[in-house]
Amino acid sequence: MNGKSPLSFLTLSIYRLPLWLWMVFILFVQQAYSKRWVCDDAFISFRYAYHAAIGNGLVFNPGEYVEGYTNFLWTLLLVIPEYLQISTLQVACLLGIVCAFASLVTLAQFSHKQNLYFAPLALACHSHFLLFATSGLETSLFTCLLFGGACLLFHSAKKRTALFLLALACLTRPEGFLYFYLYSLSHFFLSSE
Is 37 exposed, middle or buried (0-12, 13-18, 19+ CB in 10 A)? Predict the structure, then answer.
């Protein structure tokens, strides 16, 4: 063990990013915040989180044990602000922006190695990426976990950390299992060549 954090790749060059990339990040945060909105589906997770925080378990209505959410990890994360009686809506929007920002940083670091300098700019300007950053949904978390897992799996020696991030993606959205399987399978075939 080298004593470094498994996620140290996120900080290895964040201070050495070019000025134009910092401007992309600032523009992204400003645009995402100015276009903020909350999807009505987010309130399903908020309600499950509320009931879990007050001790009723992960239920929409007490006594009705139906799994009506598809974002287990996101819902569990939202239990924390509910328990602390902090605005879950604001925390969900903030977490969305933080996860989207982490996706941009990850893409910037790994696209730099491939000389794809404008990939972060293209993603930051993508309208759905901007909109879903503040939607209250798990989209930004899922994107962040997929980017992190894929970049680590294909561009570093941190395979266990990559698989851990992809496993978290599986807990975030059901289609995470598909990505986990496809990434693992493609990595297996690429590394055996």
Answer: exposed
